[in-house]
């Protein structure tokens, strides 16, 4: 996987953080790509003829506020761009998999604040986004998720505001709720975070402009690093860690016969699970 940093100044601040996230994967995979580790994944920063790393963008053209600039003509367009998030809030984000439908520069990216704390919970967030770059999608967006978790859209930040604006635009309350919880393009139109929690339609996620097929060939994995925890996108973030009514996602608790007997808070999965590791070895075999 080739990658570059937006600028050399960005590289100085983000390099170690990026690799802390990547190394969570490599440790769980048993090391670098080899017959022993059973995978073929590797990251390679793009270097110039002078032996120095190349920036993604022509020096002096990158605008951090707009998160864009003039792409380096010597940089392959498919390179994963490591971009700085210019605001301190909002966490991290990344593109999912290798995009073949369009060929614009920086279509593959990982973005986080260059000075984000290096505490374990933040680094696992980078590892989560690295999983997206590998092509992994959210575990909680599988079509069978309702057998294992409960998603509470009403607890998500901005949900009430998005619902009110949709109703003001002429949608009935029932239709607005349904589309905010099932229609990705509709949710994005109203700046709702609900698109990150929706189930696939016809086995696909991503909306009309960017579709992804959901791999459900293996059992649902409650330990996956690609599973959101109860605080993700919660309106009341701190409360969601302990109060189920404020949680965006809850785990179904079941008796020995598999009957639902209640729900519980989902804590962050701090490292890739055995299922995540198996996914990598299955899709990137040595």
Essential attributes:
286 residues; alpha/beta; 2 domains; 3-stranded antiparallel β-sheet; 13% strand; globular; metal ion binding; EC 3.4.24.-
Topology:
Blueprint: E1 2-5, H1 8-29, E2 44-45, E3 80-84, E4 93-94, E5 109-112, H2 120-134, E6 149-151, H3 159-168, H4 173-182, H5 184-189, E7 204-205, E8 212-213, E9 249-254, E10 260-265, H6 274-283
Parallel strand pairs: 1-2, 1-3, 3-5
Antiparallel strand pairs: 4-5, 6-9, 7-8, 9-10
What does this structure look like?
The protein has 286 residues and is an alpha/beta fold. It folds into two domains: 2-135, no CATH class; 139-276, no CATH class. Helix content is 26%, strand content 13%. A five-stranded mixed sheet has the order 2-1-3-5-4. A three-stranded antiparallel sheet has the order 6-9-10, with no helix packed on it. Strands 7-8 form a two-stranded antiparallel ribbon.
Average pLDDT number: 94
Strand order of the largest sheet: 2-1-3-5-4
Rough shape? Answer: globular
Helix content range of the residues, please? 25-40%
Concise synopsis of the structure shown:
This protein is an alpha/beta fold and 286 residues long. It is built from six helices and ten strands.
